[in-house]
């Protein structure tokens, strides 16, 4: 039977052996990499068709636009914000996350800039094409990468190649769920992200299950703004899912874009039964409705003749955590219409 060595000698021998093995392997093992791996980093996600790798969870985030900011709040990431930028047309006091808005730092009421991001000492920017990122503005993911700031592009805003400015690559709710899951991985809160996705999926499924199947689906047009030409939504904007999941037919479902300008002739030809008014911009919903009712080409459109207008806030019509509730509220409105 071999003689047992003293415990201290055994530990010393093991340590020397481990050191020798490490040296023999060229000291390839680095402690920081082991710690990162244990924490789940680096992580690689697909963002607008590009594989992007993040070595650590961002800690100083600049977020732009209300749906994006509310997504951060819904994921419980207020403490990761260096601050947010939100246009003056948005009132955070109306948000379900108004307490988070009150505790977070508002960096400005205009579009973000690279200078603002650097002044905030940000290490991450969450925005989208035409939701903060613009070619030639100095604030694109590529511009930020050059100064060591990582970023993430809102999936609703992903360019799709249909035209120079067209956006959207997946159905709007899929875009929301994709961003929740990607952000969950990037920030190390995947459990919270999956919880939100399950809750929203169940919420939408409940609405669809309660939608009458034996009544015609009304045709719906979304009016954002514009007098000479209306600004509206295509199939890749959140409004498309709000309409179709609630039991309506979106008149511009064939437009492979998110937000887009069309002609009044196409609206008249579509003859919508209902007009959803986007509560946003320099006009109130009442002022927008008054214009629609007074605009001669629309006089014989069903929605105008029957005064069927429904208002939703901007934050519900762009990608964000208010989308599922908006589906429910529009479905309730449709159920209340005469058969």
From TrEMBL:
KW rRNA-binding (keyword) present: no
Entries under InterPro entries matching the protein: ABC_Transporter_SBP, ABC_transptr_periplasmic_BD, TAT_signal
Superkingdom of this protein's organism: Bacteria
SUPFAM superfamilies linked: Helical backbone' metal receptor
Keyword Signal listed: yes
PROSITE patterns xref list: FE_B12_PBP, PROKAR_LIPOPROTEIN, TAT
Signal peptide feature range: 1-20
Gene3D superfamilies linked: Nitrogenase molybdenum iron protein domain
UniProt KW keywords: Signal
Residue ranges of domain Fe/B12 periplasmic-binding in the record: 60-339
Membership in a protein family: Belongs to the bacterial solute-binding protein 8 family.
Record-given protein name: Iron complex transport system substrate-binding protein
Source organism: Streptoalloteichus tenebrarius (strain ATCC 17920 / DSM 40477 / JCM 4838 / CBS 697.72 / NBRC 16177 / NCIMB 11028 / NRRL B-12390 / A12253. 1 / ISP 5477)
